[in-house]
Each structure stands twice: as structure tokens, then as C-alpha cells.
Amino acid sequence: MIPVLLADDEAMIRAGVRAILAADPEIEVVAEAADGRDAVELVRAHRPRVALLDIRMPRLDGLAAGVEIRRLVPETAVVMLTTFGEDDYIVRALGEGMSGFLLKSGDPRELIAGVRAAAEGAAYLSPVVARRVIELGAGMLARVPAARERIESLTEREREVLALVGAGLSNAEIGQRLFLVEGTVKSYLSSIFIRLGVRNRVQAAIIAYEAGLTA
Asked: pLDDT digits over 14-32, tens only?
């Protein structure tokens, strides 16, 4: 079972998201919040596997709440619910360890896929907004050397792992693909993040895309 915290200040949005998630028998919404401050407290109380947060909320916005959750309960993956026109939030979230972005008006199947991916330790970008996120991330990383130069420091195996991160695979899936135990995959990822100077899977995925490691 994948326990989920759902936070959105609009009751109808929460009801809709809850109904979509209920279609998956392995996902359970264990708590709901109408603002970011309550979301943080409920995550501390319930320690869900995934926190699904609206970016814009009263008292504490979703990004600030996500940062606190990542600090206080690092085992909880944070996925942001977003709309178009929130580029500033997306740029900031890329550097704060969020596990993904889902478009509120997107395909309901993406919501379930995003929650499942985050629960497995993977990054997930809604296909509709993935291109925009990549463009924003590429612009954010434009101050450093080109991506192809950055990956030169990686070993062949690390490049293979990075390519699969860019393809959206979880640690378990990467391990199955490369015949590695999950702990070894985590060790490779730690090394990759250090070598590339990134903080999370989304930034690493952007570099993989820019370097041509993924389609």
C-alpha cells in the first residue's frame, strides 16, 4: 500500500484527486490538508510515502511546505500539483529535491503514474509539462559548462544509470535493467549527483536529456 498525503486549498480539487487515486487499490489517501502548514504537520504525524501538494496554498505555499517536509521527513517524496504560468515555482522546486510535477488538468492516469513513480524513488514529470520543465532547467543550468562536458567525468556505468534516470526509471527498475542490487544503484546515484553538482533526480534527468543520453 502507498500512503499519500493530499494538500490543496480547494475542496473540489481534493475530492477529484482523491477519487482518481482511489481507482488504484494500492494507493491510499491517509490525510488531507487545506494549506501548507497543516500539510507539514500531517506528514509528520502520518509519515506517508508521498505528499501531493498544490503549489499555491495559504499560510505556507506548496513549495515551502515541500522544503520543510523534505527536511523533517526525508523518506516522504514530494510531488507538486501545478498549472501553466507558474514557471517561477518550477525553477525553484527543481533545486529543492521535489520528486515531480503533475498538471492539474492532465490525464488522470498521469496522477497515478506520478504517485507510483515517486513512491519508488523516481522523478516524474507530466508529459504535457515535461518539455517546459526541461527548457527551464536547461536555462537554469546554462551558467555551467555544456551537459556533454559535464558527463565526461562519469564512468561508463554511471552514464548508463544516468540515462535510465533520464528515462524516468525508479531505482528498482534501474537495478533490474542493469542487473544491480538497489543499494548499488543508490551508490551510483550519490556519486553521479556529486560529480555533476546536482541535488536531485530531476536536475540529473535534465542533464541526461541535454547530453543526448535519452530520447
From this structure: 999 999 999 999 999 999 9
Same domain, 131 and 148: no
| Cα 120–chain centre separation | 11
Q: What is the pTM of this model?
A: 0.68
152 and 175, same structural domain? yes
Query: Is the distance from CB of 52 to CB of 71 less than 8 angstroms?
Result: no
Strands (E), 15-120: 27-33, 50-54, 77-82, 100-103
Does residue 215 fall inside a structural domain? no
Number of domains in the chain: 2
Owner of C-alpha cell 507538486: 80
Same domain, 44 and 93: yes
The answer to whether 197 and 151 have CB atoms below 8 angstroms apart is: no
pLDDT digits (tens, 9 = 90+) for 56-92: 898 898 989 999 998 999 999 999 988 755 566 666 6
How far is residue 208's CA from residue 206's CA, in Å, rounded to a whole number? 5
127 and 157 share a domain?
A: no
Residue 197 near residue 173, CB atoms below 8 Å? no
**Per-residue pLDDT tens digits for 40-54:** 999 999 999 999 999
Note whether 72 and 167 are same-domain residues. no
Smallest Cα–Cα separation from 195: which of 172, 183, 180, 211? 211
